[in-house]
Amino acid sequence: MKLYHFPLSGHAHRAALFLSLAGVEHELIPVDLAAGAHKQPEFLALNAFGEVPVLDDDGIIIADSLAILVYVARKIGPSHWLPTDPATEAEVQRFLSVAAGKIAYGACAARLVTLFDAPFRAEEVIGRAHATLTVIDQLLATRSWIAGTAQPTIADVALYSYIERAPEGNVDLSTYPHVLGWLRKIEQLPGFVPFARSRAGLEA
Ligand SMILES: N[C@@H](CCC(=O)N[C@@H](CS)C(=O)NCC(=O)O)C(=O)O
């Protein structure tokens, strides 16, 4: 499979991370966001929203990081990554929604402010990041993995990248011991690949 990718994108990282964790052979195709390559007709033909990541599985095009996680999890066949029991699958979906909502407009947005000068109000997005992390930390006090399963799911993968790099957006993780423990457990999974580090925010 080919993954259209940008190293500083947490959305692209979560897709690349899952391909690696799932043991799926893949090639990373760099997309030069700084040069606007994602807004050129060739890339827009793959994803009309003009965003990375995009997966190309032998001509089957999947745009959107969370859609890629679902596609790859289904493609590899039954596994712990995307359980089919209705209640468990719904719990996984619940946290994919957290990744697409509270995390995107919280920890992710806070990092966009420090890395790319994005026009968000830092106080607001950092506040949203902390409100989300507080709940996730409470949940992880009683759950090994975020969807309450015995083994990791794509919900853990979906949440990992922007939470782990949240300090780059001035979101301090030190008061979330269960989140920190969960991040380290993900990093120990076979096939784990790290998200690029930037000198920004609390990591400057
Ligand atoms: N919902 C999309 C969001 C992807 C996204 O926001 N990608 C960013 C990089 S982190 C992007 O390509 N931004 C370029 C732009 O919007 O101009 C996903 O989950 O893949």
Count of separate DSSP helical elements: 7
Strand content: 5-15%
Shape: globular
Radius of gyration: 16 Å
Q: What's the number of domains?
A: 2
Give me the side-by-side strand order of the main sheet.
2-1-3-4
CATH architecture of the largest domain: Up-down Bundle
Mean pLDDT: 98
Cα distance, first to last residue? 35 Å
Residue windows where pLDDT falls under 50 for at least 5 positions: none
Small molecules bound in the structure, each named once: glutathione
Main sheet summary = 4 strands, mixed
* CATH fold title of the largest domain: Glutathione S-transferase Yfyf (Class Pi), Chain A, domain 2
Describe this structure in words.
- There is one protein chain.
- α1 (10-21) packs across α6.
- This protein has helices spanning 10-21, 41-44, 65-75, 86-116, 122-140, 154-164, 177-187; strands at 2-5, 27-30, 54-57, 60-63.
- The model has no long low-confidence stretch (mean pLDDT 98).
- The protein folds into two domains: 2-75, Glutaredoxin (3-Layer(aba) Sandwich); 86-203, Glutathione S-transferase Yfyf (Class Pi), Chain A, domain 2.
- A four-stranded mixed β-sheet has the order 2-1-3-4, with helices on one face.
- The protein has seven helices and four strands, in the order βαβαββααααα.
- It starts with a strand and ends in a 17-residue tail after the last helix.
- With 204 residues, the protein is of the alpha+beta class.
- The structure holds glutathione (GSH).
